[in-house]
Amino acid sequence: MISNRRSLRMAVVGVLGAASLALTGTAMAATPAAHTASPAVAQQAVPVKASITAKASVSSVHAWQLFRVTGRTTGLKAGSKVTLQQKQHDKWVSLPASTNTLRDGSYSLGVELGLKGKNDLRMVSGTTASPVFHVTVL
Fold first, then answer.
1. Is the torsion defined by CA of 71, 77, 83, 85 positive or negative?
2. Alpha helices in 1-138 (DSSP H)
């Protein structure tokens, strides 16, 4: 009877010891995964380079005729102000035409131009500018 108790006790101690080793191994195996997740999180925090696209709804209009400039921004906060600029005498001049971006980064702006001829235009927000697009005023 004593030897059966001793055998039972030894078996229980062995099972408990194996279980504790298995749990320790699991905890140690989980630790490197936690450390490898940190660089992935750090890489996601890298900001996207800001950019703006712009497209006029028409290629030519009559003076003071309304048309739309639409586009999308990336890397800018929602609600950022985008302003239309016109090239005048080799200088970019901000026009009194601006709007705020929507939550998805898009924008739409109604524009009227009076300067006849080919107008070089772009949209800007801070130091970020769209590629130049053209509208001819007849």
1. negative
2. 2-44
Note if the pTM is more than 0.85: no
15 CB contacts (<8 Å, ≥6 apart)? none
What is the DSSP pairing of strand 55-56 with strand 106-111?
unpaired
The 10s digit of each residue's pLDDT in 45-95 is 667 789 999 999 999 999 999 999 999 999 999 999 999 999 999 999 999
Minimal CA–CA distance to 109: which of 60, 62, 52, 55? 55
DSSP 104: T
Print the SS3 string covering 81-99.
Answer: EEEEEEEECCEEEEEEEEE
Per-residue DSSP letter, 58: -
- Tell me how crowded residue 82 is: count the other CB atoms within 10 A of its CB: 24
Which residues have a Cβ under 8 Å from the Cβ of 65 and sit 6 or more positions away? Answer: 112
Task: Tell me if 71 sits within 8 A of 54, measured CB to CB.
Answer: yes
Task: Please give the DSSP secondary-structure letter assigned to residue 126.
Answer: T
In total, the chain counts a number of residues equal to: 138
- Nearest residue to 133 (alpha-carbon basis) of 86, 89, 76, 65: 86
